[in-house]
Every structure is written in structure tokens, then in C-alpha cells.
Amino acid sequence: MSAIPIMIETRALVRDFKETRAVNELDLSVAHGELFGLVGPDGAGKTTTLRVLAGLLDITSGEASVHGSDLTEQVEAIKPVIGYMAQQFSLYSELTVQENLHFFAELFDVPRSQSADRKDRLLAFAGLTEFKDRRAGHLSGGMQKKLALACTLIHQPSILLLDEPTTGVDPISRREFWDILSELHLGGTTILVSTPYMDEADRCSRVGLMCKGQRVICDAPANIRARIPGEVIEVRLESWQEARTTLEGMPGVLEIQTYGESLHMLVDSADQRLSEIQDALDSQAVDYRSIRRAPARMEEAFISLIRGLEG
After folding, report:
1. Smallest Cα–Cα separation from 151: which of 197, 96, 189, 192?
2. Is 39 exposed, middle or buried (0-12, 13-18, 19+ CB in 10 A)?
3. Contact 72, 57 (CB under 8 A)
4. 80-96 per-position pLDDT tens digit
5. How many whole angstroms separate alpha carbon 38 and alpha carbon 28?
6. Whole-model pTM?
7. Which residue of 109, 135, 216, 302 is surrounded by the most CB atoms within 10 Å?
8. Phi, psi at 64, each rounded to 5°
């Protein structure tokens, strides 16, 4: 059985901006047909990494290749095979949806004999057919994101580089956008996407966590969740400040994270600590709505990992 080809690879990749090292000896590997998520706090180096891989930034040192082309010597060779979508994709607000697609088709030298058919299929794929004559500036944020993706796909790239493509859109539009990505993934497109949303990271084949320009961890979402040091207990209550003061420092409590009106507590043993936490809250007359053992989430795993690095 032949090995799956590597479509994106970096080795000890470094990118400096004057005195700032944005990417610090990054090792990354994305296989053909993989949906790979890149996550990390602001300033972790995600956008810089994607811009280097798109051929928009030079490499300071190290190596990077896309689709088998060395980015230090063959950067022009990757342009026909990649689609890059920046956080602020440059749609032309005065042009209609259809005119934007036509513009990008010409920009990517799509043959006229194929252009019309591709535009129709992408409009249908993105759910924009009935809006094809609407100006891009009059679309909702979610529709603009889907139009930007359609423009990115017009030349049928085999690799997609997407930089936080769903930032700033509503949850329904995010879900619709990811349904489109899932279809592309199932069709064999290699996708590298950065995202600030942990529920999106959970939909990826593998996830790489970046911090301070370096790769901290790279694994399947389930394996990353399994790295949480302990088990999770969720306490839902009105005043989490009082409860947090009561619970911090208790035996077996490794970490406390706040989520709205809930506290998520990482403990050494949920079976052992559940009753102890309940007794502590009762003794201080802290009202709570529920207390239960909860499954670990990606968000908890990454917050714990980042705090461990910063601590």
C-alpha cells in the first residue's frame, strides 16, 4: 500500500520581522486530503505561517514546501494549486456576486470555456445562486465569507489555506461554512485552516497548537482531549466568583476555568472529588443549580496546555 503524499511540510521554519520572531523553528506536515486545524492564542504565528505557505512572505530560515515545490526556489509553481483566503478577503463591494466570481476567474486565468460552468456550480455549492445579482457589499457577513470561499475555489485548487475564515459571522453561518469545508474535504481537497473556535478545531482530522511561534502539540482532537491532566466537573451557579474563592486550593483541584455561569474544574478524580466539592459549597451556603461530571472539551485542553506553557 503506497504512502499518502505530503502536501504541506515545514522544517525548522523561521520568519522574522525585524526584532520579532513570528515563527520559531516550526515543524509541520499535512498529508493529501487532510483537514488540518491550526489554533493558538493571538500572536502565536498562525497568520504568518499561512502567508509564508501561500508564498506571500519570504522564509527567514528553515525549509517549507507546498505540493512538492520548495518555497525558497519555486514559489511561483504553487500559485495554480493553492487557494488562499485571508482574514479580510478582498471582495469588491460594488460588484455583484457573479461579477466577483468572474473577476477572480480572469485573475486566475480560468479558460472562458470552463468559467461559466464553474461559476454556476460554485454559486450552487455555496448557496448563493439566488443572490448572484446582489452586490457583495449588500450581503450578510456569512454570505460574504461563502462568496470569498467560492472566489478562492474558482481555479480548482487542490490545497486550501484559510486564515480564520469564519471570524465575525453568526453561528448558523459558521456551521454552513464548515459544511462546505467538510464536502471539500470528503472530495479530496487538502485544507489547512486556522481558527479561534475550539468546536471548529474538533471537526479537523488533526490539530496543531501554536504558541509563541512554535508548535506545541499536533494530534487528533480526541487524543488532545485525552491529554487533560485529570477529569472535569461542571458546576452551574449564579455567582461563580464566590464559588471559585471557595473551591480554589481544595485537595485534588488541579485547575478551574470559567464558562459563562459555569465553572469547569479539572480534578484528579471526579468520583472522589464530586461529593467533596458539593460539601464545600454547602458549607459556605453557595447556591448552585447543578454539579456533575462532564466530558472534556477541546477548549479546556488547549487552555490547560497554554497555561502550562505560560506558567
Report:
1. 96
2. buried
3. no
4. 999 999 998 889 999 99
5. 10
6. 0.89
7. 302
8. -150, 140
